[in-house]
Amino acid sequence: MMKPSLLAAALLLPALYAAAEPIALFNGKDLAGWTADIPKADKDPTLPPSFIVREGLLVSLGQPGGHLVTDKGFSNYKLVVEYRFPKDGGNCGVLVHASKPRVLYGMFPQSIEVQMMHENAGDFWCIGENIEVPDMEQRRPHQEGQKYGGGLTDARRIVNLTDGSEKPLGQWNTLEIECKGAEVIVHVNGTLVNHGSNCTVTSGKIALQAEGAEVEFRKVELTQLAKD
Prior knowledge:
Largest sheet: 8 strands, antiparallel
Number of strands: 15
CATH architecture: Sandwich
Strand content: 35-45%
CATH topology: Jelly Rolls
Radius of gyration: 19 Å
């Protein structure tokens, strides 16, 4: 018969290794837990908001340009974002490991951007940070002598692995981003579209963009990953 102390420890194991419960970063009611950073509002606080809640959806109106940033930072997680372009296609993105605000063009926070731009979902953009992928020469457009990095003059874009992973305009897409240590793994509608490693940052805030196009979000959900 197993000793009582060993039996108690064995019974605890399933609880210790159980998957964490998902956390809804958007509550469907308001923007609690988020703070908007809209540079143009510094000079004109009467500007209309770039992010609103409409009929239970978080909406990026696209203008004025800026970001909606979580108040908390995170590491080692899976983020699930369900989004769609309700009108015309355009640009948007999810930024992970965000830290110092406005480091690029007086707008973009230091981070790794996971692109949501229509027909380009899953690209990486390096913003003051860096990440690596296989086949860098082929997948990271650059001019001769240009270095890979997150600086203003660096080759910052890393092209995703697939074409046609997004659904037609108006339909809902599922973007899954796993941040595991120095890795960032991205799926769009169940298809692997990017996998980077040796990221120069492993934790930070999460941000959604207002970058010209209206985008609706019905889910922004985070699940903590077990540490290896």
